Amino acid sequence: MSEFDTITARLGDIGAKTLFFVCGSMKSGNTWLQILLDPHPEIICGGEGHFTDKLAPILQDAVNQYGRYIGWKNAQKIGGLDGYPRLGQTELIYLIRTTILLLFNAQTGGKAVAAIGEKTPDSIMAMPLLDLVFPEARFIHLVRDGCDCAASGWFHNQRMTPDWQEKNFPTLESYAAATATATATATEWAHEQRLAASFTEARPERCLTLRYEDLVDAPAGTFATALDFLGVDHDPATVAACHGRGAFASLSGGRAAGEENRGSFFRKGVAGDWRNHFSAEANSAFIREAGLWLAHFGYPE
Q1: Of 8, 10, 178, 204, which sits 20 to 30 A from 193 (CA to CA)?
Q2: Domain ranges of the chain
Q3: What angle do CA 41, 43, 48 make, to 5 degrees?
């Protein structure tokens, strides 16, 4: 058996496992959920692969460019011969699937697991494409109060791109809701929740929606629900071991939840912090743009 035959067989094995994707609006806790899942002995969960927003368009462009060239050659009817076939939509989907399976294979590092997952927050905008490529895959939609997403996003930008932040959004209010540009924060969050809800409600057996706030308030039970959904062991000892690795104190270097460090990716680790930073005007503007979906997921005004 050649090396390529071995890889082909391995990809068949990878494709037969439980494959899943974690997605949600930015700053919803996607990284935290990944960190909780990855230590599980039956799971590999990596991120971020950016399959739908980066990989798929590149493969689509390659197929299109090749097709245009072959079409040009075929039009010449060299020697009166029939033209060469071109790749169609089915072949493109197969290319995307195979490439992702190759990446999943590399992601496992040879570890024998039952479930392989990846988290890219942006995938919340392209769940139907992932479903087309992997019609058997499972999806975990992580949702967080949009106001908290905005507050966390503002502090994240302040840490990562302070010059850009100062130029464009010098205050949290300007970022979250005070201007027409910033109101897009609420509009975008609401749009993403609408897309995710429509997708998950149509596939209840393969989709799970988790709230960040429930992971904070009832971590063991909420996390066990995710493990049960993936069909892996969720006994109390396993849940506790995973949570120990992903506890805020472990990730923050010993800080307790609520003890803020604005220089850390794991800044504060609490729910509802937006109330400490939003003005009444910012809150009203956010509710005006996203109130329907805040209520849908049980977030009080």
Answers
A1: 178
A2: 3-296
A3: 135
Please, what CATH class does the domain formed by 3-296 belong to? alpha beta
Least confident of 17-26, 30-39, 153-162, 192-201: 153-162
Place of tokens 């910012």: 282
**What is the token pair recorded at 101?**
């399976």
DSSP per-residue codes, 74-136: HHH-GGGPPPPP---HHHHHHHHHHHHHHHHHHHHTT---SEEEEE-GGGGG-HHHHHHH-TT
In the predicted structure, residue 136 carries a pLDDT above the cut 90:
yes
Residue 187: count other Cβ atoms within 10 Å of its Cβ. Answer: 15
Angle formed by the axes of helices 146-160 and 280-296, to 10°?
A: 120
One-letter amino acid at 70 equals: I
